[in-house]
Amino acid sequence: MTDIGRLVRDIADEMRGAEERGEVATYIPPLARIDPRQFGLCVVMADGEIHAAGDSEELFSIQSVSKVFALTQALGKVGDTLWRRVGREPSGTPFNSIVQLEREEGVPRNPFINAGALVVADINLAGHEPRVAIGELLRFMRYLADDDTIIIDEAVARAEQATGFRNIALANYMKAFGNITHPPELTLGVYFHQCAIAMSCRQLAMAGRFLMHGGFYEPGGPRVVSGQRARRINALMLTCGHYDASGDFAFRVGLPGKSGVGGGILAIAPGKAAIAVWSPGLNANGNSLLGTLALERLTEATGWSVFAR
Ligand SMILES: NC(=O)CC[C@H](N)C(=O)O
């Protein structure tokens, strides 16, 4: 039996000393100021035991990791009709790409690229004021993580509102195809605020537990989603969670995972563990460089890859 606590500490020690750390995202000004020397890792085991090391209590901007929870929320509202407006194929393009949208008539490839997440935000906005839609997601995150202190970093949300021209373009372009139903600025407001949720590795790993427990909050606890839905969300994370590096992530780590440009990654070992890792330096695809390496070390040592026997 692998001593997980020790493994988690060893990985954090290795990452602390790493020289090659990638580049922090600079296109969102507050993220450009984050110290790239930080690294945190938290593993929540199926029995509830928690192993954490490094800067695992430090808050970071979860950015695109929020897309997993926003998708869960949207599926709860509209069920499988969501798939009329969003595909479920890997895009093979960067997270903020627009190139496929013209040929595919405003239907994004999947819910984890920005275009897809904007449609999901549009679904979550239906029938609400933007403030209420955002509040609903924040409450959902707090419930999942069992932590009422989780907040939205307004400075990050405002910064993206002021500089997010690609997202503004994506939303307007899809509006032209009728796949954004609200005024684009309202849908964008919901999206920018969900990306600006600030969490620690511990909080994020806790929030991901329902995906390790087949849709249950915890063993013996209430259902968050059906078993089928949990499996499907995990499948999408595996195939689309790292954009045009999703294949490489599956190859190296072998777990459903979702990254964000804040440097966080949520990874799920079904039935075994929910894992959150954070290191702000990104690789060329906009995924945490050391976060990916740490997960590779973890699955190599534990055999948690979904492809392991
Ligand atoms: N990959 C990401 O984390 C991207 C999220 C970021 N808020 C953006 O829209 O650009």
From TrEMBL:
InterPro entries: Beta-lactam/transpept-like (IPR012338), Glutaminase (IPR015868). Pfam families: Glutaminase (PF04960). Belongs to the glutaminase family. This is Glutaminase. Gene3D superfamilies: DD-peptidase/beta-lactamase superfamily. Its EC number is 3.5.1.2. The keyword Nucleotide-binding does not apply. It catalyses: L-glutamine + H2O = L-glutamate + NH4(+). HAMAP family: Glutaminase (MF_00313).
